[in-house]
């Protein structure tokens, strides 16, 4: 009893430690020098021009949803707040900048930089894990011009990939369905170590159930999963190589030779499965026996090293039955090549036949994991073919976001010293919406989100049951009245007075937020093929304000 209590205490301490690692982990690469050179040269020009006391508002937003879809998952907010909390130029940073920046920069500027912090910055944002849409600022940053300008590149790199990755993962979750397990296997294909860690973290947020990345498991408290590689199977050439062959019974402790049991079962299974033992690999059998002895409670084997039908399945089932003789239950198989739909159906049929023949109901429920360069379209095709896969291990296409490798978030000034600013372009899609704004999500009678509405900060918020005129920001004829059944303010103050202003959710809570937020959207907004665009509108007041400012700033041409 004392031993059990001690083990429970140690487990509790370990769990608490993992949560602590998660909350306090800070990527040391994320620091003020993780920025573009022109941010610092602009800072000097601002300083030289006497703009130290200027205050500005910047919006961080994207213009197009990724993956030809109609929603995006906002992620990366917690890392942004950690960056603000630690923002400070060290002595070595200042020394480096003195050599890296152009000659002639005054020493007083470097002294100014050494004293900079994010204490006077205020950061507004939508809740991490929420669905978001083009032109709606994910983050609004308010504060002294120089410091909020210096934040730009780092905030963008923290939000761009995180949101893209979470969105990609959420799409995989939707096409796989809620009953299929999804595992992230992408570390070896990710864009470097930081990309690998971020992929593990944000794929979990997006709806994946676990990762193969051990460090991500430690840092973020993500379930870690894995089997073995083909190399383990091919490392054995025959049964003579087995150094350990016996295993104690799980309950009574009696010892039996697992290899002998497996070979007996293999002979019996050959007739049941209509295959020949002569065609199965002895080396594969030896490898599976050794792995089963090492992990009797967690035996999952790769069955496609040689031939799934003639060797892999036969050897796995023989070893699984041998484990059963010793009181253990195998977990399942992984298939990493071939026709995944056909092979998964073959495997399930095999398991069901054995379950019936040997009166082992659990055998029919053995897990079938599929990997092998799987993407969104692969899963959709497998769904149409009626696969029997329980779990997908997804790597390259998930972590590299091959369908769209960048989200394209931008960071634009919209106000300085209480004066609105607008960026014009011949491409209307790149015209910014000026001024400090609030954003509200309006819900329809069916309970689904209907439209996101941007307003100027001095406008009264929309009210439930009251008619609201919603306008397209740039197309005059596109407008509609909305009578919301629910009005959700999207912004919260997350950073002010030099500290985090909200209790931040755990990774698990952000993960739950993603699924809850997706449920607020109609199915046609989420479908894979030709999804319906979600509407983002501006108030009548903001519409008129945008166009008045546009006319004030647009040059008047002259016809010769």
From TrEMBL:
Name of the featured protein: Nicotinate phosphoribosyltransferase
Keyword flag Magnesium: yes
Task performed by this protein: Catalyzes the first step in the biosynthesis of NAD from nicotinic acid, the ATP-dependent synthesis of beta-nicotinate D-ribonucleotide from nicotinate and 5-phospho-D-ribose 1-phosphate. Helps prevent cellular oxidative stress via its role in NAD biosynthesis.
Chain ranges of the Nicotinate phosphoribosyltransferase C-terminal domain: 437-545
Nicotinate phosphoribosyltransferase N-terminal domain span: 33-160
Keyword Secreted: no
EC number, UniProt record: 6.3.4.21
Keywords, ordered alphabetically: Ligase, Magnesium, Manganese, Metal-binding, Phosphoprotein, Pyridine nucleotide biosynthesis, Transferase
Family of the protein in this entry: Belongs to the NAPRTase family.
């Amino acid at each position: 009893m004392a031993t059990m209590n001690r083990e429970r205490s140690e487990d509790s301490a370990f769990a608490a430690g993992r949560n602590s690692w998660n909350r306090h982990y800070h990527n040391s690469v994320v620091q003020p020098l993780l920025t573009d050179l022109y941010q610092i040269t602009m800072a000097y020009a601002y300083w030289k021009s006497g703009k130290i006391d200027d205050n500005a508002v910047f919006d961080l937003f994207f213009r197009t949803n990724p993956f030809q879809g109609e929603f995006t998952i906002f992620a990366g907010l917690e890392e942004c707040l950690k960056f603000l909390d630690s923002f400070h130029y060290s002595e070595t940073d200042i020394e480096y900048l003195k050599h890296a920046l152009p000659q002639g920069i005054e020493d007083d500027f470097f002294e100014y930089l050494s004293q900079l912090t994010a204490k006077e910055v205020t950061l507004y944002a939508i809740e991490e894990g929420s669905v978001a849409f083009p032109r709606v600022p994910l983050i609004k940053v308010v504060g002294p011009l120089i410091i909020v300008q210096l934040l730009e590149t780092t905030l963008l790199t923290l939000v761009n990939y995180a949101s893209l990755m979470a969105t990609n993962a959420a799409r995989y979750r939707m096409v796989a369905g809620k009953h299929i397990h999804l595992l992230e296997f992408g570390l070896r294909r990710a864009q470097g170590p930081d990309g690998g860690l971020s992929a593990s973290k944000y794929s979990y947020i997006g709806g994946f159930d676990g990762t193969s990345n051990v460090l991500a498991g430690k840092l973020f408290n993500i379930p870690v999963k894995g089997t073995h590689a083909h190399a383990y199977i091919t490392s054995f050439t025959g049964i003579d190589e087995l150094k350990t062959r016996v295993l104690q019974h799980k309950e009574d402790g009696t010892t039996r030779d697992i290899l002998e049991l497996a070979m007996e079962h293999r002979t019996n299974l050959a007739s049941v499965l209509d295959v020949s033992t002569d065609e199965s690999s002895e080396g594969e059998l030896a490898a599976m026996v050794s792995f089963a002895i090492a992990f009797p409670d967690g035996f999952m084997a790769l069955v496609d090293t040689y031939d799934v039908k003639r060797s892999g399945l036969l050897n796995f089932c023989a070893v699984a039955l041998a484990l059963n003789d010793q009181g253990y239950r195998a977990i399942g198989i992984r298939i990493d090549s071939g026709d995944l739909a056909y092979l998964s159906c073959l495997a399930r049929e095999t398991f069901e036949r054995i379950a019936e023949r040997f009166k082992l109901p659990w055998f029919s429920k053995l897990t079938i994991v599929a990997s092998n360069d799987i993407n969104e379209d692969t899963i959709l095709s497998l769904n149409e073919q009626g696969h029997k896969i329980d779990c997908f291990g997804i790597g390259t296409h998930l972590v590299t976001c091959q369908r769209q490798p960048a989200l394209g978030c931008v960071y634009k000034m919209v106000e300085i010293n209480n004066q609105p600013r607008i960026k014009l372009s011949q491409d209307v899609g790149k015209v910014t919406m000026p001024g400090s704004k609030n954003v509200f999500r309006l819900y329809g009678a069916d309970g689904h989100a209907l439209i996101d509405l941007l307003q100027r900060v001095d406008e009264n918020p929309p009210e439930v049951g009251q008619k609201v005129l919603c306008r397209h920001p740039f197309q005059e004829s596109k407008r509609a009245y909305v009578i919301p059944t629910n009005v959700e303010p999207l912004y919260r103050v997350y950073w002010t007075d030099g500290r985090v202003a909200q209790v931040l959710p755990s990774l698990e809570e952000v993960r739950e937020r993603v699924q809850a937020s997706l449920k607020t959207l109609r199915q046609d907004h989420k479908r894979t093929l030709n999804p319906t665009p979600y509407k983002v509108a501006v108030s009548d007041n903001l519409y008129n304000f945008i166009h008045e400012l546009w006319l004030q700033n647009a040059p008047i041409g002259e016809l010769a």
